[in-house]
């Protein structure tokens, strides 16, 4: 039995976790915040990721560059030696499956399963955060164990079965995730609720995709749109990307930039939007335009990328590029749903 006294005493009073926007140049790469783990509690940072469902942190990891969890200093650390590994779209980690007392904001779970990672691929080498907390559905977890938030619901440790994200644009501070709540001061419209079509990722029906003010639809049929706070940009099947960029005069592939990238004339006129369950949501120019292909170029790089071979042809991954314009709420109640409301970023 794990002693809960120390972890409960160290919990905070606010349901909000402040997130730091990690930027590379003008690009918002990822958003990360703090959690506490162990007894006595140690504070580490994680990427709050709706596109995965495992919690992991480095423990005795020789290849890891960030702060690690020192399991030897915790009286509540447990492991039976089961192996653990996660393969992401880019990057992988491995180690052993462990249990520990974990606290996020004013919530806590005793005996939370997590990956004690002792090996990371180079993809994580430049990231400032120590690990990842997956906030998708446990049906996609590599460990096969309930997620942290699912445990909160099961333990009746949150008043509401949802959490909400505000992602700021190009500023290190100001972003947050609300655990068991949403922050109505961060959006200016009513909430549009979208039914989840698959309890794996937070998947909704993507019914439209346009660069031309919804006058043309780049989709021949609906896609499964995974709303993913852990992904920087927007990824769609190659045929969809080709159709989308064909709506912007002068746009085309930009293989010299990298696989899946496209370019378009910086002065081009366009009005990009995504539609979910038949409702259109705009995509801000400030987030779609990733900047010039080179300092003297008249061409700019687009933030919609082709996923290429090996990805499902009916899937879109909708990342932070979209979510900076839309406060997002992830609700487990009923058959689950995603809420979108116009972010205060849009009024700045």
UniProtKB/TrEMBL annotation:
The organism's place on the tree of life at top rank: Eukaryota
GO BP, sorted A to Z: proteolysis
Sequence ranges assigned to domain Peptidase A1 in this UniProt record: 31-341
Keyword line: Aspartyl protease, Hydrolase, Protease
Pfam families: Asp
The keyword Acyltransferase is annotated on this UniProt entry: no
Residues annotated as transmembrane: none
MF-aspect GO terms: aspartic-type endopeptidase activity
Active site: 49, 228
Family stated for the protein in its record: Belongs to the peptidase A1 family.
Protein name as annotated: Aspartic peptidase domain-containing protein
